[in-house]
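From the methods appendix. Each design record in this collection lists the tokenized structure first, followed by the designed amino acid sequence. Records were kept in a plain field format so they could be parsed without special tools. The example shown here is representative of the layout used throughout.

RECORD:
FOLD TOKENS (293 positions):
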């Protein structure tokens, strides 16, 4: 069980321990000998997105989410986690980030369902804080809506983040989408041509692409889609709907494509049907790392 009282007590009485713990954290190379990564994502709550399938409050319990993350990070083949400072600081205090990759989520200001959702402000990590704390990179979400001027601010801020992370020799993980707003809701366009266009836009952001990676959805005609880039690409798990076996099959088929270097998956692994986090994570680890686990 997660000792929430202990975490709260440390935060209240000894907040300086968090900074010291980041400096003492045991780090590892970004990726191992096989060049692949399995990253567990947990940055949805900071954008007000707490739902999984038909449960709108599935991620509302912080102790419940932490328990699932600790289980996932303990499994062989899991390389690390992507999250906002509140979650990563908790995991750090619990010792769950030792010898794990830690990616900081940077822009969470585009709150789900808000009128300013596409003006996705950088409200979490900065490139400077990522470098100072010894994280391994930063992740940005770049939703591009041609009818919403807020997307321009997001693209400009993303470009600045890519440039700053490259100056620190740190991974910049961009998750791009062409998006539309329909009846007050933002919908990402997942047809192959839209994803290809988003790849080209994202790839040109920043003053250097040396440390840029992409985080892309598994879509139809994925081989043609990924022919749009030479940047290393991690596939995202997406919204956990439908039969998980179909999802696993799609991930497995994609692992053979040259640009694909692994997976970034959150709710699909942390809240699987039946609730067995370890089993779901182990399947993903086998797909990513196979016999090298």
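DESIGN:
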């Amino acid at each position: 069980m997660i000792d929430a009282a202990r975490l709260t007590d440390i935060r209240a009485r000894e907040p300086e321990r968090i900074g010291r713990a980041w400096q003492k954290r045991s780090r590892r190379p970004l990726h191992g000998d096989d060049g692949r990564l399995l990253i567990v994502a947990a940055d949805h709550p900071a954008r007000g997105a707490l739902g999984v399938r038909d449960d709108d409050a599935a991620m509302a319990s912080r102790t419940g989410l932490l328990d699932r993350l600790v289980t996932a990070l303990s499994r062989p083949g899991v390389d690390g986690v992507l999250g906002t400072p509140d979650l990563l600081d908790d995991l750090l205090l619990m010792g769950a980030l030792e010898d794990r990759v830690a990616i900081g989520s940077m822009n969470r200001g585009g709150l789900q369902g808000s009128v300013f959702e596409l003006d996705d402000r950088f409200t979490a990590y900065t490139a400077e804080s990522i470098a100072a704390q010894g994280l391994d990179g930063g992740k940005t979400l770049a939703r591009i809506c041609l009818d919403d001027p807020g997307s321009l601010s997001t693209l400009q801020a993303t470009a600045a983040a890519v440039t700053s992370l490259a100056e620190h020799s740190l991974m910049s993980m961009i998750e791009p989408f062409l998006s539309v707003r329909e009846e007050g809701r933002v919908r990402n366009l997942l047809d192959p041509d839209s994803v290809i266009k988003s790849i080209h836009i994202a790839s040109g952001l920043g003053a250097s692409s040396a440390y840029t990676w992409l985080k892309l959805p598994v879509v139809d005609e994925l081989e043609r889609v990924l022919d749009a880039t030479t940047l290393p690409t991690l596939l995202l798990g997406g919204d956990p709907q439908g039969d998980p076996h179909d999802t696993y099959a799609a991930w497995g088929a994609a692992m053979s494509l040259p640009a694909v270097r692994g997976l970034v998956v959150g709710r699909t692994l942390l809240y699987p049907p039946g609730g067995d986090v370890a089993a779901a994570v182990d399947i993903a680890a086998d797909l990513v790392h196979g016999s090298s686990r």
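APPENDIX NOTE: Strands lie at 37-41, 80-83, 101-105, 137-144, 171-182, 185-188, 212-216, 233-236, 260-265.
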